[in-house]
Design a protein that fits this description.
Blueprint lengths: L2 E6 L6 H10 L4 E3 H11 L1 H11 L12 H7 L4 H24 L5 E5 L14 E6 L2 H11 L5 H9 L4 H7 L2 E4 L6 H13 L1
The chain binds adenosine-5'-triphosphate.
The site of adenosine-5'-triphosphate (ATP) has 14 residues, from helix 1 and helix 6.
Catalytic activity: 3'-dephospho-CoA + ATP = ADP + CoA + H(+)
Protein name: Dephospho-CoA kinase
Family: Belongs to the CoaE family.
């Protein structure tokens, strides 16, 4: 069974970019946010729970998640956000374990923005934090997502554990600043995780 390794980092830190380098080395990566969205659309057990909690309007007549409805009713209410997370997180956790056990590499990665925030570090053998200065992160996200305002980005940052705390709690830190090269850092960790 492969070792389970989480890869996290605040918004705009570059965790997806780093995860893609691991993929080039042949390491399978589970993208938790994408999988969560997919499970909300296709996992019948999870869909049933969401409908039970938030009503039939949660899905369109075609059976797709009704994002507009959820955005207006759920995502504006912190208690309801907690509730939907408490349904989605265990479903993602189960899905990840099944996915991981079908892989045959020495280790696999789970890429997620929130690992320490959700206690997910207890479910993996090691965590990598991708760390970048706040100002660079904000600029990257403004460039990548022109539809997002500075205010929206800061709101997301406020919901995440500060980078310095995550560096202390992580087993490995990858520094993704302008003058740091990613590939040598990835190779060093890759070697350690294979032994
Ligand atoms: P999110 O949490 O929002 O998904 P993320 O941590 O996955 O963000 P990425 O999407 O990997 O971050 O990176 C954010 C943006 O910054 C992307 O457009 C990416 O191409 C760019 N970027 C990341 N690292 C670097 C780098 N070292 N040099 C140049 N551009 C970079």
């Amino acid at each position: 069974k492969p070792k389970l390794v989480g890869i996290t980092g605040g918004i705009g830190s570059g965790k997806s970019t780093v995860a893609k380098i691991f993929e080039i080395l042949g390491i399978p990566v589970y993208y938790a946010d994408d999988r969560a969205k997919s499970l909300m659309n296709h996992d019948s057990g999870l869909k049933k729970q969401i409908i039970q909690e938030f009503g039939e309007e949660s899905y369109t007549s075609e059976g797709d998640l009704n994002r507009k409805y959820l955005a207006s009713t759920v995502f504006s209410d912190p208690e309801k956000v907690k509730k939907i997370n408490s349904l989605v997180h265990p479903a993602v956790g189960r899905d990840f374990e099944i996915w991981a056990s079908s892989q045959s590499t020495p280790y696999v990665l789970k890429e997620a923005a929130l690992i320490f925030e959700t206690g997910g570090e207890k479910k993996v053998d090691a965590v990598i934090n991708v760390s970048s200065p706040l100002k660079i992160r904000v600029n990257r996200v403004l460039m990548r997502d022109p539809h997002r305002s500075l205010e929206q980005i800061n709101q997301i940052i406020d919901q995440q554990i500060p980078d310095e705390d995550k560096n202390e709690r992580a087993d490995f830190v990858i520094k993704n600043t302008e003058n740091k090269m990613l590939i040598p850092q990835v190779l060093e960790i890759h070697q350690k995780l294979q032994s």
